[in-house]
Amino acid sequence: MKTENFKSKDDLQKLIELLRKELEMLYYKKGSFVHPTVLQMSQQLDEYIVMFEKSGP
Q1: 33: Cβ–Cβ under 8 A, 6 or more apart, which residues?
Q2: What's the pLDDT score for residue 15?
Q3: Coiled coil: which residue ranges (predicted)?
Q4: How many other C-beta atoms can be found within 10 angstroms of the C-beta atom of residue 12?
Q5: What are the CA-CA distances from residue 5 to residues 36, 48, 51 (Å)?
Q6: CA distance 26 to 48
Q7: Would you state the pLDDT for residue 4?
Q8: Which residues of 19-46 are buried (b: 16+ CB within 10 A; e: fewer)?
Q9: pTM score above 0.85
């Protein structure tokens, strides 16, 4: 996903927070950080965090 898809850095930050909560719930449901679904969501979250950091102040 490209940063152009987000209207603002604030939108991206909201998405990151939402994904963090979903990842936490998924971890508790699956009971493992190495479950494929948990890993996939974690990697997606990492990509968004990198985009957020690169988007500047």
Answers
A1: 27, 39, 42
A2: 93
A3: none
A4: 19
A5: 26, 12, 11
A6: 18
A7: 53
A8: beeebeebbeeeeeeeeeebeebbeebe
A9: no
Phi, psi of 30 (to 5 degrees): -85, -25
Q: Which two tokens stand for residue 31?
A: 């009971």
Residues 6+ away with beta carbon under 8 Å from 39: 33
Question: Tokens in use for 38?
Answer: 């948990």
* pLDDT at residue 56, rounded to an integer: 77
| Tens digits of residue pLDDT in 1-56 | 444 566 788 999 999 999 999 999 999 999 988 999 999 999 999 999 999 998 87
